[in-house]
C-alpha cells in the first residue's frame, strides 16, 4: 500500500486478528498480529503496533500463556508510553496485571492495577473503571483484607449502577457475598447472591 494507506492496512491486519480472537482461533490471531507488528515496525506506525502488541498479550492470556502474556503486555506498555497514549498505557497496565495475578505475582498485579485506575477514572469507559476496581478488590480479597476488598467491590458496583448497568454486577455481588460468608454473616451474604 502507498503511504496514505499504510495505517489502514495495519489496522486491517489488527482487526482481522481481533475477529479471530473473538472466535477463539489463536493460531490465526497470532499470524495476523505478528504480521501487523512487523508491518508497523517497517512503516513506523507506533500506535497500531502498540494495539497489536496488546492484542498479542490478550491472545496469550486466553491461551493460558501468562508469562508470555505479561511480556507482550510490557512490550505494549513500552510502546504506548513512548508515544504518550495514556489510555493505551492503562489498558497495557491492566492486561499485564491480569497475567501477573494468574502467575500469583500479586504485588506486581496490584501495582499495575493501581497505575491503570487513575487513568481509567479520568478517561476510561465504565467497564474499564469497574473491572479495574473489581480486580483490585480481588487482590485484597486473596490477602484476606476484607475491608479493602469490600471497598473496591462496592466501588465497582457504584460505577456500574451510576449508568444503570446493574446486570453487569454479578461478579462484584458474588465477591461481596463470599466475603460476608467468610466473616460468618450468612444473612448478608444471601442478600448479595
Q: What's a quick, concise take on this entry?
A:
With 193 residues, this protein is mainly α. The protein has helices at residues 6-23, 26-42, 46-62, 66-83, 86-102, 106-123, 126-142, 146-161, 170-182, 186-192. The longest helix has 18 residues, at 6-23.
- Whole-number average pLDDT? 94
* N-to-C order of helices and strands: HHHHHHHHHH
Largest sheet: none
Helix/strand-derived category reads mainly alpha
SS elements, strand count: 0
Question: How helix-rich are the residues, as a percent range?
Answer: over 70%
Shape: elongated
The helix count comes to: 10
Through-space gap between termini: 55 Å
- Poorly predicted sequence stretches spanning 5 or more consecutive residues: none
Strand percentage lies at under 5%
**Rg for CA atoms:** 19 Å
Amino acid at each position: 500500500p502507498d503511504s496514505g494507506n499504510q495505517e489502514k492496512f495495519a489496522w486491517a491486519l489488527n482487526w482481522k486478528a481481533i475477529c479471530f480472537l473473538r472466535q477463539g482461533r489463536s493460531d490465526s490471531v497470532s499470524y495476523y498480529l505478528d504480521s501487523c507488528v512487523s508491518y508497523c515496525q517497517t512503516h513506523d506506525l507506533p500506535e497500531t503496533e502498540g494495539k497489536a502488541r496488546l492484542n498479542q498479550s490478550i491472545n496469550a492470556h486466553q491461551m493460558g500463556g501468562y508469562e508470555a502474556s505479561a511480556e507482550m503486555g510490557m512490550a505494549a506498555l513500552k510502546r504506548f508510553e513512548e508515544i504518550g497514549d495514556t489510555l493505551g498505557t492503562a489498558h497495557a497496565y491492566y492486561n499485564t496485571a491480569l497475567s501477573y495475578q494468574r502467575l500469583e505475582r500479586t504485588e506486581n498485579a496490584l501495582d499495575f492495577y493501581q497505575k491503570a485506575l487513575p487513568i481509567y477514572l479520568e478517561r476510561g469507559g465504565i467497564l474499564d473503571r469497574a473491572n479495574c476496581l473489581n480486580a483490585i478488590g480481588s487482590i485484597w480479597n486473596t490477602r484476606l483484607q476484607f475491608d479493602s476488598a469490600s471497598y473496591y467491590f462496592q466501588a465497582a458496583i457504584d460505577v456500574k449502577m451510576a449508568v444503570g448497568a446493574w446486570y453487569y454486577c454479578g461478579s462484584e455481588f458474588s465477591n461481596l457475598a463470599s466475603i460476608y460468608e467468610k466473616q460468618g454473616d450468612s444473612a448478608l451474604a444471601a442478600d448479595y447472591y
